[in-house]
Amino acid sequence: QCQKDKEGADYVCPEGTQGNGNFADPATCRRFYQCVDGYPYLNRCPSGLYFDDISKYCTFKVEARCGPIATTPAPITEAPTDLATRCEPADCQLPYCFCSKDGTLIPGGLEPEDTPQMIMLTFDGAVNLNNFDLYKKVFNGKLRNPNGCPIRGTFFLSHEYSNYAMVQKLAHDGHEMATGTISQQQGLQDKGYEEWAGEMIGMREIMRKFSNISRSEVVGARAPFLKPGRNTQFKVLEDFGYIYDSSVGVPPLPIPVWPYTLDYKIAHECKAGTCPTKSFPGLWEVPFNAHYVATYEGGHCPYLDQCVLHNHDSDDVLDWLQEDFRRYYEQNRAPYMMPFHTNWFQIKELERGLHKFLHWASEQEDVWFVTVTQALTWITEPRSASTLNNYEAWKCDKKDLPPAACNISNKCALPFKHPDTNFTDTRYMETCTECPNQYPWLGDSGGTGIPGKDNYIPDNLK
After folding, report:
1. Do 48 and 132 sit in the same domain of this protein?
2. Shared-domain flag, residues 20 and 136
3. At how many degrees (to 10) do helices 202-211 and 164-172 cross?
4. Are residues 128 and 58 located together in one domain of the fold?
5. Do 169 and 315 sit in the same domain of this protein?
6. End-of-domain residue from the set 371, 391, 411
7. Gene3D superfamilies in the record, alphabetically (predicted)?
């Protein structure tokens, strides 16, 4: 007997343990079925998004792999030698190493009630006129931490269409800037060392040259589409002095996972299948715990805008976020990362629901909004929540800020010849520094017009 969703389309959930979760609609990539205890519920992706049957969430059309797709193990592209071993807590001591058998233990052996509940607001992609004012509404100075400091976020910046005067403004206001990639290219997870260095270190150089952000302030990275680059990406981060990566997805777990160093084998399933397998001592991973509620209404997602909440009003969104948050707050108080793309803020009920949640969360006891680096600083030296009002690392005055952004930026019309074509067009870029000769790109982060000019030398070889 076929079970039917509300629209009458026949669909049978997979039998056995695979009967719970999200599954592609065979008829269209715009919809998917959410199976709960064998019963299918039809869901539609938000406008402009498509269901990816590998990652099991709604994403952009260029990223979506329409289903149904038979699941097969990820190909092994590296010889399994020199692999990281399982966590040995006795040999892994803070501040340089942290792991636990299942990833859920609180650093320093603190009890949950003595642990601050950190919230990390993170934003992926370009910063420009499409989102700058929306982000400023989140960080309008009204929401403050228990020590009176305004809340701050972390931006994983990608290059195309970014306004570097706006980026400089955000950095000057104390927000953390981290690297996405220059091109956001598909398939980077299978590329080599030079490609990863060109993308990530090149992005860091673009921020330095056009937003006046020093290299020492850019210490975090995120792979495009949450597809880590196996061991290659992490070797680049290690060589070029990064402190953390935040690209590894965690499946829906009853208790969320804390950040950990990559000294040992990752304690949870690797969602993407392209996680590092070797040891990278002292390099932190800030994982993407899956967002979901007990009924799986809206599905589960790494980025909040990939859960299907667009048909909810703002109070429904508030309720959903509160339930998701309580899984952290009422259990092990792992940092609650709230990752967004711009499209969350373009749906007004989602934006209103988020603002309601932020106000509600800021009124809860021992809740702190921190950047990723601020969270890791606490993790390396845990201290009781009752002592944090005078905690130096979370004070309002942030050191090494870039200079204030200019009032009138340079609006640069720059020639751009994409490496894959012979066609030259014009790209526009705003910056408080001088306009480059041409649009900055891979191999020429300074926009000199000399292809392949960049030559990145790892920190340990300088």
Report:
1. no
2. no
3. 80
4. no
5. yes
6. 391
7. Chitin binding domain (2.170.140.10), Glycoside hydrolase/deacetylase (3.20.20.370)
Q: What confidence score (pLDDT) does residue 141 get?
A: 92
- Is the sign of the CA dihedral 428, 433, 439, 442 positive or negative? negative
Q: Which residues of 273-308 are buried (b: 16+ CB within 10 A; e: fewer)?
A: bbbbbbbbeebbbbbbbbbbbeebbbbbbbbbbbbb
Residue 445 is assigned to a structural domain of this protein:
no
Q: Given the structure tokens 């201290």, which residue do they identify?
A: 383
pLDDT digits (tens, 9 = 90+) for 74-132: 444 455 567 899 999 999 999 999 999 999 999 999 999 999 999 999 999 999 999 99
Structure tokens at 277: 């397998």
Q: What is the mean pLDDT of residues 49-67?
A: 81
Rounded to an integer, the average pLDDT of 192-199 is: 95
Question: Is residue 222 domain-shared with residue 312, that is, in the same domain?
Answer: yes
pTM for this entry: 0.84
Phi first, then psi: give them for residue 197, nearest 5 degrees: -65, -45
Residues 322/360, Cβ–Cβ less than 8 Å: yes
In a domain, 429, yes or no: no
Query: What CATH number has the domain bearing residue 301?
Result: 3.20.20.370
Q: For residue 293, which of 16, 105, 36 has the smallest C-alpha distance?
A: 36
Same domain membership, residue 168 and residue 20 = no
Domain that holds residue 321: 112-391
Per-residue confidence band for 244, with pLDDT thresholds at 50, 70 and 90: very high
Report the alpha-carbon distance of residue 283 to residue 234 in Å, rounded. 8
Q: How many CB atoms lie within 10 A of CB 407?
A: 7
Are 191 and 338 found together in one domain?
yes
Per the structure, the count of domains in the chain is 2
Q: Which of 336, 366, 391 is the last residue of a domain?
A: 391
